[in-house]
Design brief:
There is one protein chain. By secondary structure, this protein is an alpha/beta fold. It folds into 2 domains: 232 residues, Spore Coat Polysaccharide Biosynthesis Protein SpsA, Chain A, CATH 3.90.550.10; 98 residues, Hexapeptide repeat proteins (UDP N-Acetylglucosamine Acyltransferase, domain 1, 3 Solenoid), CATH 2.160.10.10. The chain is 21% helix and 31% strand. It is built from 9 helices and 30 strands. The strands form 7 sheets. Strands 5-4-1-6-11-8-12 form a 7-stranded mixed β-sheet, sandwiched between helices. A 6-stranded parallel β-sheet has the order 14-17-20-23-26-29. Helix 7 crosses helix 8. It is elongated.
Length: 360
């Protein structure tokens, strides 16, 4: 069995971050979203993983993830045009060969293990096994309809859902799925839908089943969801972990924290759960709960909580506490005492900035 992680798409809901990096490489607790998927697939006993990527971002994946290690190998497969999940799967046809495979949508965060899913597939040997979850808003997902244990219908984002069980972006397939993809036509969205391919298997009489999941999961394709995932991961921290050459002076550390190699914390307060990246400098500042500070961030005379700050950013002398924010890499956020006392900003396309109203 092989693993396949899809990392295509334009990431429009995560602009401006997705202009310069794929959304799957954005950090949750200072680790790329996709790394959680790789770790779970590896722990399920799968040693070969293909990652479908857009050509212009391939080097970013290679630089950050490499090609695996002694436990798992990574291979990058280019999808030249984003034409839907089924099309992305088809691009990996040569990599998959005649093996069954676990498909994982790369912007999904799933808190459970995949062992039971793999065991169920190997025991029952259906043509497809889908991980599904009861949701309050099924019309926003691909939804399944059951007859007994079998799935008899799959529909993408239906106005009248046949059930409350949504497909959450993790699947197990036999190579028969490629036959179903070959027969597809584009949907009304102009994409080749994986739900249509699964329905094609059903229509041909193949067995398609589901495993209900009762653990926490989230699509990280929006900023608020990325912050939610960051919070969820940090909730699992226990104790204090310090990397080598960490320097802490005249500071208070409370709650579970990770402070990575070479970080400095001087005259500051850190209240976990929180992660401070390698080489970060926290000077006369407050880091509140559920905050991830990236590598080589410099923060002086400022306060932040419930937020994610990416690498090499400077936050200097900000008088108001930053909350529920995502701040990109190599950003400079600095207060000025010069005149005129005006607000000066340089914001790229699709940026968002919320400013508190002054009290009257």
């Amino acid at each position: 069995m092989k693993g396949l992680i899809l990392c295509g798409g334009r990431g429009t809901r995560l602009r401006p971050f997705s202009h310069s990096r794929p959304k799957h490489l954005l950090p949750v607790a200072n680790q790329p979203v996709i790394q959680y998927a790789i770790d779970k697939i590896r722990k399920a006993g799968i040693e070969e993983i293909g990652i479908v990527v857009p050509p212009h971002f391939k080097s970013r994946f290679e630089e950050l993830l490499g090609y695996g290690n002694e436990e798992v190998s990574l291979q990058y497969i280019e999808q030249h045009e984003a034409k839907g999940i089924a099309d992305a799967v088809q691009t990996a046809r040569e990599f998959i060969g005649n093996d069954s495979f676990l498909l994982f949508l790369g912007d999904n965060f799933y808190s459970g293990d995949l062992d039971e899913l793999v065991r169920r597939y190997q025991h029952d040997k259906p043509e497809a096994l889908l991980l599904v979850s009861h949701v309050p808003n099924p019309s926003q997902f691909g939804v399944v309809q059951f007859e007994g244990a079998r799935i008899v219908r799959v529909v993408e984002k239906p106005k009248n859902p046949p059930s409350s069980y949504a497909i959450i972006g993790i699947y197990l397939f036999s190579p028969s799925i490629f036959e179903a993809i070959y027969d597809l036509s584009p949907s009304s969205r102009g994409e080749y839908e994986i739900t249509d391919a699964i329905q094609g298997l059903i229509d041909k009489g193949y067995t398609v089943t589901a495993l209900p999941a009762d653990v926490w999961w989230k699509d990280t394709g929006q900023p608020k969801n990325l912050l939610t995932c960051n919070r969820q991961v940090l909730l699992e921290l226990r104790g204090e972990t310090y990397g080598p050459d960490v320097n802490i002076e005249s500071s208070t550390i409370e709650g579970p924290v990770i402070i990575e190699a070479g970080a400095q914390v001087v005259d500051s307060i850190i209240r976990g759960p929180a992660v401070i990246g390698a080489g970060a400098r926290i000077i006369r500042s407050y880091i509140g709960p559920f905050t991830s500070i990236g590598d080589n961030v410099c923060m002086e005379d400022s306060e932040i909580e419930n937020s994610i700050v990416l690498e090499k950013t400077s936050i200097l002398k900000i008088s108001k506490r930053i909350d529920e924010s995502i701040i990109g890499g190599e950003v400079k956020l600095e207060a000025s005492r010069g005149y005129p006392r005006s607000l000066r900003v340089i914001l790229g396309d699709h940026s968002i900035m919320y400013l508190p109203l002054d009290d009257e």
